[in-house]
Amino acid sequence: MLIVQPTYLNSTPDLKSMLLTMGALTAVSAPLATQLPWGVIGVFVFFLLLRLGLLMIGVYALKTWQLMILMVGMTALVWQQLGTVIGLGGGAAFLLMLSLLKSFEGKTRRDWQVLILAMMFLLAAAILFDQGLLMGLWTVLCLVLMAVSLAMLNDLSFQAALKNSLVGFLLALLPMVMLFVGMPRRETPFWGMPQIQNERQATTGMSDTMKPGSISDLVESNEPVFSVTFEDGYVPQQRDLYWRVMILANHNGSEWQAVREFMDSAIPVEDNRHRVVRYNIMMEDDKGRIPALDYPLDTNHQRGLRREAGDMVRVFSRAGVRRFTLRSSISDELPHKLDQFFQQRYTRLPENLNPRTRALAQRLWQESGGNAEQYIQAAYLYFKKQGFAYTLKPPLLNSANTTDEFIFSSKQGFCEHYSDAFVMLMRAAGLPARVVVGYQGGEFNEEGGFWQIRSKDAHAWAEVWLPEKQVWKRVDPTSAVAANRIDGSIDEALLGDESGISIKNNAFTRYLDQGRYYWQAWIVDYDSNRQQTLFSYLGFERVTPLAIMIVMGGGVAIALIPLWLWWRRSRSNDILPLEHGFILLKRRVLGKDFGKLASLAPTEFRAELAAQNRLPEDLDNLIQEYIRLRYASSHEPSPVIARAWYQRAQKLARKYAHKPTAPQTFETKWNSKRETE
User: Fold this and answer.
1) Cα–chain-centroid distance for residue 170?
2) Mean pLDDT, rounded, for 452-471
3) Where are the domains of the chain?
4) What confidence score (pLDDT) does residue 101 get?
5) Which of the 8 DSSP states describes residue 310?
6) Which of 97, 121, 227, 364 has the most CB atoms in a 10 Å sphere around its CB?
């Protein structure tokens, strides 16, 4: 039973409950450590430790002017670090500081309860940054900690608080699930969040440039990037899984740069030669870029999606949608009529750089008789037969002519080295070419029936425009030196490379991937389509108001069973009013001393009041009647007698409530004199 009388709420809780509440604040704030600037996190940790130290020496609340200085300083810090105190980042940082500041004025139980309420909003802010499976589990842990802290602030022991909190969560679980499942859903949300741009945020996304080492650094991570399920029972081959993300067409002499936003006329068409597949992608936001299987078909029918240069797919929406349905034509050729402007754009090379590469291109072009397809084959065979090696850690290229140094000296590289060199050879021969970066392959999760693509699957390849066919043709020069990278995985390709990665997916990783997939599919992305699928499993053809009422009504009825059993048990226990009344009496009469005298038995309580000369006759009679009803009789008192005693205890608790003494002023003396007269 939570006592909410003002006198009780204005009392000071014990140290253990305050320390546990600070621990709950730490747990709630932990997810924000990876999202907010280091300056904000550093100040938070410093003042958190300071607050714990003050609690340990008995300083429970700072003065008002001290709190005002802290508030101004923390507000200025957030503004300096983020430029605002509103919005997602600024608002979360400001709320974090205000929650910490609230703990510095935490003297009464009411203050600490308000802090727990603020932590609810702080936890919601953390969820806005991350809705993954691990964050979901962490949220449950934080809610349990907050519930236990709230119970301990009401003088329950840790064991009793933990037990009551877990029982409460279990009782609320089924109604929560039924409300989540049954609430009507829309295909798109009413509101959304802007995409978060955070330099400190861990990301598996790709940058807008490519130079030696940019993709190999990404490959060293085993983080999941997106997952895919194919419809109509389609089972793809590993070699066909080219997930294009970005076109790199501009070279400034040291690195490749992404094509800026512009539309081109490349429109893949459906024909009988190529398989058209439909698939669903679930992913985290990555600057609006959507990995699409070569080659994506028209996306105009989907809200927020559009195609861009090089047949890229991007999402322009504040809705934060994470699940997309796409259609692709499985092919290595993209029909495209390239006008003169774009032919010049895709053959442009840095001047006066890589002369040996240019000479090699001219020689291979002459040997191919000026035929584009034969020239592509000749360049591909050159990498295959000239002793090139595939490695994650190639030698550094220190000269200005990096492509020359790679082709004629080191001959060791990763996919970015081979795609760079191949496109350079194509352009040097006058063929339009470009670098494509994305992901190749993936790992099939048999238990979940989906493909998991990770950072280590990052890849780069080339596309060459064939003037005779008027098509872009995909060419992967990496396969010339590491065919098992395309047909197998990067782990197989680097198996003999001592400098390579060693990432093996064990059973735990597969189950974790499966859990993440189902969490994303059925919790985070639970929309009207998922709801229709779930209701069809329950025997309903459509999601109608009647079906929702049946599902939710049945769930609520089942959830009420344990509540009804608990209510019956409470009603049948006739001594509960006596227990609650006696605890209330001790809290009100003892006041601030209740924390250290809470365990007093009735006789000890009576003796303590007598020693303080605070035991009037009516209060003494009430305590003695409690002893008689509770212990002297061989059977429990009737509910009527117990409730009558409880009502008397309430009245005397108000009458004899402990009032802290304060120095009398002229006004209080005058009022006291008037009351006497």
Assistant:
1) 24
2) 89
3) 6-156, 209-508, 576-655
4) 92
5) G
6) 227
